[in-house]
Amino acid sequence: MTRMTADARHADVIVVGAGPAGASAAYHLANAGVDVLLLEKSAFPRDKICGDGLTPRAVKQLIAMGIDLDAPGWARNKGLRIVGAGHRLELPWPELASFPSYGMVRTRMDFDEVLARHAEKAGARLIERTAVTAPIVDERTGRVVGVTAKSVEDRGRRTGENRGDRDNRDDSSNMDFRAPVVIACDGVSARMAIALGLERRENRPMAVAIRAYYETPRHDDEWMESWLELWDGEPGRSNLLPGYGWIFGLANGTANVGLGILNTSAAFQHVDYKDVLRRWLDHTPEEWGFREPNLVGKIGSAALPMGFNRKPHYTRGVLLSGDSGGMVNPFNGEGIDYALESGHLAADIIVQALARPEGPARERVLEGYATALESAYGGYFTLGRVFAKMIGNPTFMKQATKYGLPRTTLMKFTLKLMANLTEPRGGDVSDRVINALARVAPAA
Ligand SMILES: Cc1cc2nc3c(=O)[nH]c(=O)nc-3n(C[C@H](O)[C@H](O)[C@H](O)COP(=O)(O)OP(=O)(O)OC[C@H]3O[C@@H](n4cnc5c(N)ncnc54)[C@H](O)[C@@H]3O)c2cc1C
């Protein structure tokens, strides 16, 4: 990072982290003419361990950002194939006025860069290799007025680190960045939130998931495939493995294959994720190619913070967006969409807030972010929390798979519920039932 002038380190808004939440927030702010600094610790292109699956909800957000989805690299799919209890059920994404009827898959290796560069093109000032270390708190008001950051190497390490000589570390790279509003989009590590004393809520669901890329003839599957049961041999006659699996074709010769385990499952604490993945995949058909010689890159795992596991989402000039605010959907592990949506919402609210005079009038608008998030997802995430608890019980899951999967109408309802795809107003009976349930469920 070259030395920057103090002016270059001032902005209307600082966004910490250029994942989907950060890119979305920065894009919508810049598009509204707000001066925004987007600070990212790594250098693009960089990977993020993920399943790479985008539901129609996420596609809607990409469209709202003006991303060219006809460009090369975007693999479209028409729905979800559910595998379990001897059934393979194909459920097209619902036809709705509010969401497109297709999903997509794209590796995070380039998905995040496409979004971040798009925000940059809209006018956001993206600074890579810059790790935010702490918020700057105004002692008089208690408000956050910026962040401190350090220059780092491409993969997020401090300059000079890991060379066996800590004294060589280049501390001249310490910098202050100033803005009246900060959005924390720093992912599951939630460094900003933790620095402000916002601890993880232990009673919210959490999952760990592992993924691998394989060269496979299944790379151009038009369906996103989800496995409700994982066996290490013949289904029903071998060991049932913990967790739920996915196979998402990337249409580039490879597929993203992985599995996730909820902390509501008894196995959660003592699982060797790589071993479970291998035992499952070793018993998938040989011709699919999910075997060691076809493995591309490294297998990786990471945590998914669900159901608003960190709150409040607004405090003292800082808004939490995406994984930093624990916004993964507990029904299906989808986090990219909620990162994009919450980044978008944060931007809209900040645009309005900055048009008010500093002080209580502006503060009222900013506080509206937490309320808006709660009313958009609070009840739905509470339902998801109950669902996560139920599916952590293998007996429930076995019965639900056995008796639920053969019933197409029930499964269509379940797809809408799990992917949060309903018309907000009107719609059919299932839309109205799901919306009513989410409305009456207590806040998350
Ligand atoms: C194995 C696995 C599979 C998953 N599959 C799916 C899926 O198929 N579909 C889906 O929708 N979701 C999936 N998720 C969830 C999804 O990956 C996350 O919810 C999503 O990436 C959250 O986006 P975000 O922008 O909040 O955070 P992130 O994507 O984590 O981005 C955070 C950014 O902040 C940067 N950063 C962090 N700390 C700092 C700092 N101190 N200073 C500067 N920058 C910093 C990081 O480098 C990163 O660029 C999966 C997760 C896992 C672990």
Describe this structure in words.
The protein has ten helices and 21 strands. It has 444 residues and is of the alpha+beta class. The chain has helices spanning 20-31, 56-64, 108-121, 191-195, 273-282, 336-354, 360-391, 394-404, 408-419, 429-440; strands spanning 13-16, 36-39, 53-54, 75-77, 79-84, 87-92, 103-105, 125-127, 130-137, 144-151, 175-178, 181-184, 206-215, 223-227, 230-231, 240-241, 244-249, 254-262, 295-305, 314-315, 318-320. Mean pLDDT is 92; it is low at 160-170. A hairpin with a 2-residue loop joins strand 5 (79-84) and strand 6 (87-92). The strands form five sheets. A seven-stranded mixed β-sheet has the order 6-5-14-17-18-13-19, with helices on both faces. It has a six-stranded mixed β-sheet with strand order 8-2-1-12-21-20. It starts with 12 loop residues before the first strand and ends with a helix. Helix 1 runs parallel beside helix 6. Flavin-adenine dinucleotide binds at residues 16-22, 39-42, 48-53, 131-132, 185-187, 189, 191, 209, 211, 258, 302, 304, 322-323, 328, 333-337, 339.
